[in-house]
Design a protein that fits this description.
32% of the residues lie in helices and 14% in strands. It is globular. The protein is built from 13 helices and 13 strands. A 6-stranded mixed β-sheet has the order 1-7-6-4-3-2. The chain has a 5-stranded mixed β-sheet with strand order 8-10-11-12-13, with helices on one face. A two-stranded antiparallel sheet has the order 5-9.
Amino acid sequence: MHRDFPLDVDIPIKFIDRRVERLRTDPRSDLRMALNPNIHCQFSVPDLSEEDVFLVRQWCTQTSDLERNTSARKAEIIAKRFYESYGLSVRDVSITQLQTQRSSGEWKLYDLQVNDSPVDVKNYRSLRRRSSRYREHRVKHFKRTDQGLEISIAGVVSPWTNVDEIVFLGENTFSEIESVRKYFQQGDLLTLDFSGNAIHRGTLLPPWMFDYPLQCYKQRIQSLERMKNSKLFDFAQWPAWELNPFAISILLRRDVTEIPEIRTKMEDWEVEYYRELFEACRHCGVLLSVVFFATLRHFLAMLRSSYGTSAKYRPSDYRKFLYFHPEWVHPVGIHDPLGTVSVLVSTLDALWRGSHYLIKDYRDFRLDAMGILRGRKEAQKDWKTIIAYCAKCPRDPLLLSEETRHCRYGRIICECGHCCSDCK
């Protein structure tokens, strides 16, 4: 009978090669369960019951609201299914507004009660021309219950047609968002602007600001516990075994740059990026937003530093710190359903290869919820767009280059002629 060797005992040398190979290939291995989680977050578009249809009609003040409100109710149903699939107790608060005699009025504040925690579901439909992109989730007000409990925001992306699937992105709270934003705004390098505008007031949340609850990472937590005292996780041995230690070491909170066998094989910029990522995850938690902002902030710091002239630096090399294996798509073991971190790395690499010399004199940078990056030079007031996305055509992304034309507001003018609503 086959029997796995436990991870917390001494392993005979003759079994080391076999166990190392298993770490790479076996779907049951602790590395795979920690760094390649299987989170079911995509669902077929659900049908509405008669009660759901009646609720949707209650929400509509005009005929044009029907499609949008139908999509919103389906998003609530999917959010409920997601939480229930992980064994959480869920009460549909939204539907109680039909119970006029017994309704407590909770539905005015939130849509679901998940294990006694209030959750407000925010739905956004993907763009017609590009199902992989959507604008952002708009939160008019972050709310609390009458008992003072903070209401979580759950993000859902719905398709324009019933053919595509609905994606549950995760959840977040105002206090968690503010904690991450304040951490990455330290210093004068980067400003994170998630505020709305005159038309869309409130806070705008991009997809990388949502994370899945800990219940979704139960296997990862168990795997990390088994790894902590394992002889195979003596990271000094990993270079000889040709294993990538970076992502798993962040989850285990072991700074591998302190290990000579690993540090001597790293470039100075690699050490800086790893430590940026390691410290951010240690301080804020291993979150999708933390990985996203740590990567972006290091890239911007490289533009300012002397390392930026080094031919050895390439943003594409961030991937070896984020992913244990090229085929794995979870940065530092975080489920990223829209691939936002991978897209960021590809975008930064394209920008670096094409025109980093054009922005090396920029000193301040501002990122908004749409992923639009702007910068300005020292002692200048005007902001120039560096990375943008056209709202009128499929060109994606728009990057600063020598051929780039900016409008009078500093926005990039797309080849299709579109710029921004201010220029209409």
